[in-house]
Structures are given as C-alpha cells and as structure tokens.
Amino acid sequence: MKKKAKAEIDLSTEEKIKEAARKVFTRKGYAATRTRDIAEEAGLNLALLNYYFRSKSKLFEMIMAEKMQQFFGFMLPVINNADTSVQEKVELITSKYMELLMENPDLPYFVLSEIRNTPDYFMKITDSGNFLSKSIFIRQIREKAPGRNPFHYLINLLGMCVFPFIMNPVLQKMGALDEKTFAKMMKERKTLIPAWIKSMLEED
Amino acid sequence: MKKKAKAEIDLSTEEKIKEAARKVFTRKGYAATRTRDIAEEAGLNLALLNYYFRSKSKLFEMIMAEKMQQFFGFMLPVINNADTSVQEKVELITSKYMELLMENPDLPYFVLSEIRNTPDYFMKITDSGNFLSKSIFIRQIREKAPGRNPFHYLINLLGMCVFPFIMNPVLQKMGALDEKTFAKMMKERKTLIPAWIKSMLEED
DNA sequence: GTCTATAGAGGGATAGAC
DNA sequence: GTCTATCCCTCTATAGAC
Predict the structure, then answer these.
(1) Cβ contact (<8 Å) for B159 and A177?
(2) pLDDT tens digits, residue range B17-65?
C-alpha cells in the first residue's frame, strides 16, 4: 500500500519516460514528435531516453504495441466466446469500448493515424490469417442476417463506438457540442448502440 | 479542346507539383513528408517547389484546404436546403459521400490525422459559430426524434459512411476482406445506410 | 523557368564527466 | 543512473549559373 502510493507519485525514471512518450506520441504522432519534447515532458534529460530505450523508434514501438493491445486486445476473447449470444457480445463490446474510449479519447486518432505506417505491429496481436472471418461472432451474425456480408454490421458496431471520438474535436470546435453534452451522449450510446444494431439485424 | 487534351497529358510544372504533393502528403502525412519526396514524385527539382510555392508549409496548406473543401464542402448546401426531407438529405449525403470516398479512399486518413494539427484551416470553410446546430437538417432530425440529441444521428450517418474506409486497410491486412468484396459492400451501403438511419429515427 | 550546389537549422544519438 | 556538450546526418530553403 505504502509502496504503491509512493510509486504513483514518484515514478521510476523508466516509467516517467514511457508516460511522457505516451502523451506526446499520442498528441503529435510519430514523425512530428521530437525526442526532446518527450524528455521535457518527463522533466528529464534527452540522453536518458537513449539510455533506457535504444532509440526513438524502439520507444515508439513499445508504446504502439501497448495501444494496439488496448484497442484490439480485449475484443478477441469476446468475439470467440461460444457461450454468449450475438446480442450479448454486442452489448459487451459496446460497453467496454465506450469506457475505454472515454478514458482514452485520443486513442482512435493515434491508432488510426499510425496504423498505415506500421503494417506489422498489430499483426502480432491478431496473428493468423483470416481468423476474424472464422470467428464465432461473425458466424453468429451470418446466421442472423444470411443475406448480407456480416462485416457490414461489425463495421457499423465499431464505427458507432469509435467515430464519435474522431468527430468530437471537430464538433466542439464548430461549437456544435460541449464537453459535458458529449460525455452524456457517450453514456447514452452504451444502450443505444446495441439497440440500433439489433434492429439492423432484424430488418433482414 | 486541343488545348485541354494537351494540358491533361502534359501538366504545367505547377500542377505537377500539386499533384505530387497531394499524393505524398496524403500517403505519409505532413511531418513525415520530405520536400525531396514530392520533387521526386513530380519528376522535378526540389528548388522548383520553393519557386512556385514559398515553402513546404504553404504548399501543404493549399492541399489541406482543398481536401477540407472536398470533405466538408458539399455537405453544407445540402444540410441547409429547406426543400428536401430528412430522408432525402440522408440519401443525398450518403450517395455523394460514398462516391467521393470510393474515388479518394485515403481522404479520411489524411483529413482526420491532420485535423488535430490544423485547428484553423477548416474553420474558414465552416465559419460562424454553431451554424450546424441551427441547420435545417439538425432541426428536422430533432422533430423526428424529439427525445434524443440529434447529433447522435449525424454522427451515425457520417460514421457509417466514413468508418469503413478507415477500417478497410486493417481488415484487408487481416485477410477478412478483399478489395473486390469491399467495393461491392460500399455500393450496397448506398442504399443500406439510409434504410438503417430511417429505422433508427423511427424507433423513437 | 529550371537546374546544381550549398548554406543553415533541427533533431537523433552518443561521449564522457560526475 | 543522470547530466552537459557535441557530433553528424537529414532536410528545408536559397544563391546563382544557365
């Protein structure tokens, strides 16, 4: 207890760097980030970045893998659970995703903007060829709506969760939404999205 | 006629640079793009970029404004047309957006990844405070579904159009979708999305 | 208008003192 | 382990010949 409390206040140097790197990389992207920015954000010296992590790119890879894990990691076990219905899966994915994104609002920006430059990192997480097509979730959707490509619904589900966080900065800047209203809407979406998906699937 | 045909084959130097800049900036983002890349892509010399456009950033601003125009421009007149119903607007937006995106599949990546660094460019396009909240489209949605924040539906509409193009590279790399299937699905979406939105609005 | 050559700044990485 | 000082490469921008 005492140890943990202390660790939170007085992080190890290595952890300070990682924390600063998370922040700066996420805000500015890989190319626009200078190692000096990270050092400054961490309140430390530039040389320490190379002492703890060999290079800017190594440090980035570490952060990236972590974010990918956050972004895609939890979904895989859910998707292949044979004991839950489609609707239960949808509810689970929605609520977990919305919570994750509310805590990390710029996760989508980061992952999506860097993904095209990093064709390999996230393959390690997802491994194996077209496991997704063979997943239980996709199979269950296919049964529910046999006439349609099931990925329509997967894309809609993820899009309705993730896209608001992408649009949010734009909408706020346009004065269309304030922070509080946005937060309230995201809460509502936890129940709205499963209902929308349900009616989409039943329409067929 | 003769002149135009020639112009299309043998572009002016200025146009060659812009064309190359579009390609490279879109693929790599601003920070990761080197002016040398653009010069090479254009088959020209580096010095010419600075001759025609004063600097890398000026050139970028030009391309960015152009892309913003593409991305947001056409929507504004549609949104404020008093002579069309919600459903007609949804159909119009969907079909135009899907066509635009099919021709420029990496438009979303570009706009969305650069938007956080360029808080001002697109404000010129959208100008004026919360014009969006006062738009006819939003008012019409509010009437149809009085209990809910109308931006839920706007976000869903745009998300269902745009998000597939964001996910596409990921899904292709995971072997879940091939190019042909994706193109087919995007065509289907032109009619599917309006139907989905309609049933969402009626559910309330 | 288009090129070559180069100035000049910025930023990643490291040597070496403490 | 942590710091300062600095190397050196890369990239933008410009000078100047043609």
Answers:
(1) no
(2) 999 999 999 999 999 999 999 999 999 999 999 999 999 999 999 999 8
Query: A169-201: buried (b, 16+ CB within 10 Å) or exposed (e) per residue?
Result: bbbeebebbeeeebeebbeebbebbbebbbebb
* pLDDT per position as a tens digit, A63-98: 998 988 888 888 889 999 999 999 999 999 999 999
> Are the C-beta atoms of residues B159 and A160 closer than 8 Å to each other?
yes
Report the CATH number of the B1-53 domain.
Answer: 1.10.10.60
Q: Which two tokens stand for residue A101?
A: 């994104």
Nearest alpha carbon to residue B167 among A187, A148, A72 = A72
- State how far the Cα of B176 lies from the Cα of B164, in Å rounded to an integer: 13
DSSP symbol at B112? H
Which of the 8 DSSP states describes residue B33? Answer: -
Cβ-based contacts of B109 with chain A (< 8 Å): 112-113, 116
**Near-strand D residues (CB closer than 7 A):** A 13, 44-48, 51; B 33-36, 46-47, 49-50, 54-57
A28, A162, A169: residue with CB nearest B115 = A169
Q: How far apart are CA B26 and CA B105, in angstroms?
A: 10
> How many Å from the CA of B47 to C1' of C6?
12
Residue from B151, B176, B159, B185 nearest A156 by CA: B159
Of the listed ranges A56-70, B113-127, B136-150, the least confidently predicted one is B113-127
Chain A, nearest residue to B122 by Cα: A170
Q: Which amino acid is at B87?
A: Q
Kindly list the residues from chain B whose CB atom is less than 8 angstroms away from the CB atom of residue A170. Answer: 115, 122
Q: Which fold has domain A11-53?
A: Arc Repressor Mutant, subunit A (1.10.10)
Cα–Cα dist B90/B73, whole Å: 16
Is the pLDDT confidence value at B1 over 60? no
